[in-house]
Amino acid sequence: MLLYVRSKPREVTIGPGRNEAVDSRLCVHVSGAVRRPGLYELKSGSRVSEALSKAGGVSEGADMENVNLAQKVKDGQKITVMVTVPAPVAGKAPNPDGRPEAGGARPGTVNINTADREQLETLPGIGPSLAERIIEYRESNGSFSSIEELDSVEGIGPSKLETLQDLVTL
After folding, report:
1. Tens of pLDDT along 137-160?
2. Which of 31, 101, 99, 34 is nearest to 62 (CA)?
3. Residue 116 and residue 125: Cα distance in Å, rounded?
4. CA distances (Å), 4 to each of 1, 71, 105, in order?
5. Residue 123 class from Cβ within 10 Å (0-12 exposed, 13-18 middle, 19+ buried)?
6. At the topology level of CATH, where does 25-81 sit?
7. Domain-by-domain residue ranges, the chain?
8. Alpha carbon distance 93, 85 (integer Å)
9. What's the pTM value of the predicted model, to 2 decimals?
10. Could you tell me where the DSSP H helices lie in the chain?
11. What is the pLDDT of residues 41-63, one digit of tens each?
12. I need a labelling partner for 12 at 20 to 30 A (CA). Which of 3, 138, 148, 165 fits?
């Protein structure tokens, strides 16, 4: 004897979180003028301010002028907080080797997060169109989190990035 049982179709609901990506965490590298530099795990959608809080906050002398606290962080991102460069004292000669004092930016470098087109064009190999692409990238993606991120701009490859490495800052 063969018995066949058929039931009515029933509605299946998927609870909250079931359609979300399994890995909703990301890892960022926080360095520079923070109390505890290192790698930190954050929830997806976190902001730079949360990453800095995880790193114990910024240390004394941190240059927060070019840090976008509201920017969403990306997995693998490096967040560097620079040290404020003190204004030169009248009559005091700069370092003869051109190195920064106390971790500040070297004189003559161009800040890729704040430079306008004309300032960017002072860099070797950067003409008007490439300067515009750098600015467009910065406006679309937020401030550069590392100098290496310049490689994401169309027209800047590894060799040009190597040329610019010591001439730019964040």
Report:
1. 888 888 888 888 888 888 888 888
2. 34
3. 16
4. 10, 60, 79
5. buried
6. Ubiquitin-like (UB roll) (3.10.20)
7. 25-81, 110-169
8. 15
9. 0.42
10. 48-54, 117-120, 128-141, 158-164
11. 999 999 999 999 999 998 888 88
12. 3
